[in-house]
């Protein structure tokens, strides 16, 4: 965890591919650096999808205690299984009001960017394998190379590195 006021946000968009089928993506983007610290892609939208993404985030960060996880009002985020996982990881849940995307605007914007940048002029990803490969490549690029105005035009990884270096310099 990089910041004591650590906030994560969750959302799970539909990823269309040929034949009218979908994969679903659950992400855990960190609000501090905009880094996606956890994600999971599956052919279902059950609680395991979002729980897997949160577990990956915990593994990536080493710990999530004191984090606030904000999500939309999806049933997966309100389930007892997900609530239990959050309790186990020390995560406080926050859920937006139903029927409005404004409560989770950062995640909505993130997923709109993903679709806009990975489906330019297309209606679907073609097949499940291409969808997974394309989304994984985009997420990797997003964390390592995509610049964000909120980060002073640095990638999430660069922004975190500079923050960490500045903290070490101040401590010395």
Verbal overview:
Residues 1-6 have low confidence and may be disordered. The chain has helices at residues 47-61, 75-78, 80-89, 105-118, 128-144, 156-171; strands at 7-10, 14-17, 21-29, 36-42, 68-71, 92-95. 44% of the residues lie in helices and 19% in strands. Helix 1 packs parallel to helix 3. A three-stranded parallel sheet has the order 1-5-6, with helices on one face. Strands 2-3-4 form a three-stranded antiparallel sheet. The two termini are 20 Å apart. With 172 residues, it is of the alpha/beta class. Residues 1-163 form the Integrase catalytic domain. Pfam families: rve (PF00665), rve_2 (PF13333). Residues 149-172 are annotated as: Disordered. This is DDE-type integrase/transposase/recombinase.
Q: What characteristics describe this protein?
A:
nucleic acid binding, 6 helices, Transposase_IS3/IS150/IS904, 172 residues, 44% helix, 19% strand, three-stranded antiparallel β-sheet, three-stranded parallel β-sheet, disordered N terminus, single chain, alpha/beta, globular, Nucleotidyltransferase, domain 5
The secondary structure category is alpha/beta
Overall pLDDT score: 86
Poorly predicted tracts of residues? 1-6
N-to-C CA distance: 20 Å
Helicity level: 40-55%
CATH class designation: Alpha Beta
Element-level helix/strand string = EEEEHEHHEHHH
CATH homologous superfamily descriptor: Ribonuclease H-like superfamily/Ribonuclease H
Write down how many β-strands occur, each being a DSSP E stretch of 2 or more residues: 6
Radius of gyration: 16 Å
Question: Strand portion, in percent?
Answer: 15-25%
CATH topology tier name: Nucleotidyltransferase, domain 5
Lateral strand order in the biggest sheet: 1-5-6
Tally of discrete structural domains: 1
Give the number of helices: 6
């Amino acid at each position: 965890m990089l910041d004591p006021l650590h906030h994560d946000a969750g959302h799970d968009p539909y990823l269309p591919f040929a034949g009218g089928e979908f994969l679903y993506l659950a992400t855990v983007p960190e609000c501090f650096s905009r880094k996606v610290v956890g994600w999971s892609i599956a052919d279902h939208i059950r609680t395991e999808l979002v729980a897997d993404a949160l577990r990956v985030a915990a593994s990536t960060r080493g710990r999530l205690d004191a984090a606030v996880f904000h999500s939309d009002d999806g049933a997966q985020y309100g389930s007892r299984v997900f609530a239990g996982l959050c309790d186990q990881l020390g995560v406080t849940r926050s859920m937006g009001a139903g029927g409005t995307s404004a409560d989770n605007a950062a995640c909505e914007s993130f997923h709109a960017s993903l679709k806009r940048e990975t489906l330019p002029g297309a209606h679907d990803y073609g097949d499940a394998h291409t969808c997974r490969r394309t989304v994984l490549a985009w997420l990797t690029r997003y964390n390592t190379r995509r610049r964000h105005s909120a980060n002073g035009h640095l990638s999430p990884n660069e922004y975190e590195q500079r923050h960490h270096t500045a903290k070490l310099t101040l401590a010395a």
